[in-house]
Amino acid sequence: xxxxxxxxxxxxxxxxxxxxxxxxxxxxxxxxxxxxxxxxxxxxxxxxxxxxxxxxxxxxxxxxxxxxxxxxxxxxxxxxxxxxxxxxxxxxxxxxxxxxxxxxxxxxxxxxxxxxxxxxxxxxxxxxxxxxxxxxxxxxxxxxxxxxxxxxxxxxxxxxxxxxxxxxxxxxxxxxxxxxxxxxxxxxxxxxxxxxxxx
Length: 199
Hints:
Protein name: TIGR03086 family protein
Radius of gyration: 17 Å
Mean pLDDT: 90
Shape: globular
CATH topology of one domain: Four Helix Bundle (Hemerythrin (Met), subunit A)
InterPro entries: CHP03086 (IPR017520), DinB/YfiT-like (IPR034660), Maleyloyr_isom (IPR017517), MDMPI_metal-binding (IPR024344)
Largest sheet: 2 strands, antiparallel
Organism: Paractinoplanes rishiriensis
CATH superfamily of one domain: dinb family like domain
Low-confidence stretches: none
GO molecular function: metal ion binding
Number of strands: 2
Strand order of the largest sheet: 1-2
Helix content: 40-55%
Distance between the termini: 50 Å
Order of helices and strands: HHHEEHHH
């Protein structure tokens, strides 16, 4: 795993921001690969998670506001990257209330965040039918984590962070493999595909 986790996480987060630049109000109702979530819900979740991790890293409460989903998302990215850039951040423990009361070592918590934003970056891109090329260092960490997450009954639980793993072909590229291992369908598209005529 690359030693510069902070830089890899920052690259993963920054890669998501350009995807939001041209989002229009009409786009906010577009479907996403996250079951039951439209683009507005996905952006709100991503914004809330950035704020939550920033609060855990800094030890300061950060109010959640969503007056403008796109601008608020970019502001939340700045908040979390600033919090993670503190010189001693890797010596801290993070309490992430959405994951329970127990604190996590900073390196583990920031790895959670990185994986989430590599995958959610893909979710954003697919919702918008946009290209997405994750940072190589961030992708390497994400794939390593995806390979280590157990495929067990917890994947079937309501609100599980990842769906059951899907089969991985031997020629899969790193992003495709990570998506499949984390239960995402790499072929998902917001644009309905034409059906193949039957003969």
